[in-house]
Amino acid sequence: MKAFSGRPLDSVTLDAVRSGDVSADDLRIHPETLEHQAQVAEAHGNPQLAANFRRAAELAALDDADVMRIYEALRPRRSTYAELHEIAEWLTSRGAVVNAALVREAAAVYQRRSLCR
Amino acid sequence: MADRRVGRIRALDAQRVNLDGFAVENADLGLIALRSPHDPEPSLRLVDGRVVELDGVAEADFDTIDAFIAAHGLDLAVAEEAMALPDVEIARSMVDFAVPRSAVVRLVGGCTPAKLARVLALLRPAELTMAMTKLRARRTPSNQGHVTNRADDPLLLAADAATAAAYGFRELETTVPVLADAPSNAVAVSVGAAVGAGGVLVQCSVEEALELELGLRGFVSYAETVSLYGTEDVFTDGDDTPWSKAFLTSAYASRGIKMRVSSGAGAEVLMGGAERRSMLYLESRCVSLARAIGAQGVQNGGIDGASVAAAVPAGVRELMAENVMVMARNLEACTGNDALMSESDVRRTSRTLPILLAGSDFVCSGFGTIQRYDNMFGPSNWNAEDLDDWLAMQRDWGVDGGLKTAPPESLEPLRRRAAEAVQAVYRWFGLADLSDESVDAAVDAVGSKDLVGDDALSVLNAARTIRESALSMVDVVAALAESGFEEEASRVLDMLKARVVGDYLQTAAIFDAEMNVLSLVTDPNDYAGPGTGYEPAPARQAEIDAIRQAKSVEDLRAEQASWASSSVSVVGPAAVGTDPREVVVGVSPATGREIWRTLSGLLVVDVLREILAGIEEEGGAGRVVRINDTLDLGMIGLSAARLAGSGVSIGLQAKGTALIHRRDLPPLANLELYSVAPVLDREHYRLLGVNAARHARGAVPEPAKNPYTDEAIEARYHTAVVSLIAVERGCCAPVGPDELKVAE
């Protein structure tokens, strides 16, 4: 089992923490692990949970601030239709294609239901 | 006084149940539980693998909730089959233990919200209980508790979190009266929980964005305040859309943090936006959406709206139907029993009992582990005041409601360690200098009313420092370890490492105290009828059975031995008396050997002194003998009467039961009887002596009467009676009576 940083999780010990040798990325989940969890969810009758884990695998590589920014942008009347599409393009550029599709789908529905800014 | 009702009604009006509000069913306001005439007819039309009509709404008219469910929520490969089945057939499949859970989950995957609501509305309470037993995701039931206080006092939060963990809660939820205190509360509860046990999940319920931030920083290990609503207007008023919630769900998973969503009957009614639909239908939309956005679980069963649901006919049934709906959608169910839904102890117990019996992923989605007044979510249906009741109910029914007895003597050191751990962490980072006096107060406090001083400002400062600095939970781990709390540091670190592994992201996951994940994947519910499914392991059963109040014969024998004295001694064999004034007091075999105190708390020797004084007062002569060959009070009395010069006796069992007997009566007859030993005091025994002496003279005194009580005397004393009788039987032997001397 490896962390986001690539470090083996076994090496993240209390001693390592005490000597200041553990970074935030050493305690962050790796996208491959989320893909594995997606497969487990699929095998246990929940494709939607699997889809969530696959979106999460893409988001795992993003910074906290970007994740919080996009969440905020998706809330009602926070963004214009065009801004949502910009976010979708930005996500695509970062390899987050499933999330980009989700944001584009949101843009279409928000426009029809008057939820764009 | 035109409208003065009769006393019987006035008495009922004063009962606590009449503090509750009850509403006339009103579909226009959404005050309707299972089925409204305005609920849509279930329907689903597919064109080229695309949903073009859902529950009577055409695609072009889909609101955001319809649109998200249509795009993501349904298993279209099963939908046509499922929608064509009669409602009652799907309902039966949920109850019938011969149909595997997986078959029900598959079919339900193809049911629209309106369809699933119709199905659940068909299940009667006992059927809901069966369905819950079979359909919940995780085999092992568990429980979740609130840990909060009015002062946001971190020392008390830590002590109470440790206590809750010791009582067996596997998830702890905190929140704040002052929003800015949230980071401090999250740290204090996480540290306290780690003192209590390993593997306890912690969350801090606050506004969505702040809750996410606390999760990203590692201060909490799951999230739950991700609210869904059943109508678009209310959803939007909640400042989210299905897409923002779906993204939020993935945001948590992307950092390895467990989350579930929160919904439940009554929320839309309270916000005036129920659109004339039934509570069950609106909740079905929420649960369908929860599945569609990829949440692993749902907290529902009327959370804040529980009392709204409970105000309408079949409302409590609707709350349980919501929970079963979650399970049928193959999600974790955190089954309400959260906000207090009645002032009546009877009603709130009635509301919870079927769920406790069936077992649930989390029986309560918020048992108030602290005092009612300290619960910043509002009082729960179950609170710290009720912990012993809950433990007794588990034991009564032989079921696992997730809790265990925290040994009373263990709590002082446990609470102290928790408070000191937080004190150390806050000092380490210079967050606050919490005094030893404050620690002492938190350790012993029932609740925040017992705290000393007011640290409100220092808590606020601590919280602000945590939020504004780059402090993370890894730093807290280091601070704990450097301050002598290594085991607790390891436990907090384990929770952080669990995020990297991700196994606890799966449906219905909890950790046991050894950090094993129990979930739909690792501990699937395999109920398939009697003899299958969850059964507590022997060690767990022993925890359920061994409540602290349980006493054995040996416990009682030891307690009696502590009252032993030389005040009653044997003089020799008892002989037949000749004095016509003589009344013989016959006592039971264990008297003055193993039993020294009656059920009312009097020493047996004092009872004898009162009886003898009463006999003497009336001009009689008393003598005490021990009847060794029987423990039957009638036979003791008759044997004593046969030894008495007057032919009249008093029989006394050491536990305090007493009668007046006469030698010409049949064994089971008597002249007067005190049958309720626990309520007898000295005056009663003296009167018995007086009356026996009057009977000896041939007079007919007014019989002494048992004092009246409407308390549950039998519940309180029957176990002691069984033990005392066993002790009496052990002293019983086929030997003649002893003459006893009672010390002055």
Strand content of chain A: under 5%
Provide the low-confidence segments of chain A as ranges: none
Number of helices of chain A: 6
- Total helices of chain B: the number is 29
Order of helices and strands of chain A: HHHHHH
Radius of gyration computed on alpha carbons of chain A: 17 Å
- The percentage of residues in β strands of chain B lies in 5-15%
Number of domains of chain B: 3
Q: Report the mean per-residue pLDDT of chain A as an integer.
A: 97
Uncertain spans of chain B, ≥5 residues at pLDDT below 50? none
Radius of gyration of chain B, Cα only, in angstroms? 33 Å
The rough form of chain A would be described as globular
Residue share in helices of chain B? 40-55%
Characterize the biggest β-sheet of chain B: 7 strands, mixed
Q: Total strand count of chain A, please?
A: 0
Offer a concise description of the structure.
Chain A is mainly alpha-helical and 117 residues long.
What does this structure look like?
The complex is a heterodimer of chains A (117) and B (744). With 117 residues, chain A is an all-alpha fold. Chain A has 2 domains: 1-61, no CATH class; 63-117, Propanediol/glycerol dehydratase, small subunit (Hypothetical Protein Yqey, Chain: A, domain1, Orthogonal Bundle), CATH 1.10.1510.20. Chain A is 61% helix and 0% strand. Chain A is built from 6 helices and no strands. The longest helix of chain A is centred in the last third of the chain and has 16 residues, at 97-112. By secondary structure, chain B is an alpha/beta fold. Chain B folds into 3 domains: 27-135 and 226-363, Alpha-Beta Barrel (TIM Barrel); 139-223 and 373-548, TIM Barrel (Alpha-Beta Barrel); 555-742, 3-Layer(aba) Sandwich (Rossmann fold), CATH 3.40.50.10150. A 7-stranded mixed beta sheet of chain B has the order 15-21-17-16-18-19-20, sandwiched between helices. In chain B, strands 6-5-4-12 form a 4-stranded parallel beta sheet. A 3-stranded antiparallel beta sheet of chain B has the order 1-2-3, covered by helices on one side. In chain B, helix 8 links the parallel strand 4 (144-146) and strand 5 (171-174). The longest helix of chain B is centred in the middle third of the chain and has 21 residues, at 408-428. The radius of gyration of chain B is 33 Å and the shape is elongated. The model of chain B has no long low-confidence stretch (mean pLDDT 95). The interface between A and B is large, with 56 and 66 residues.
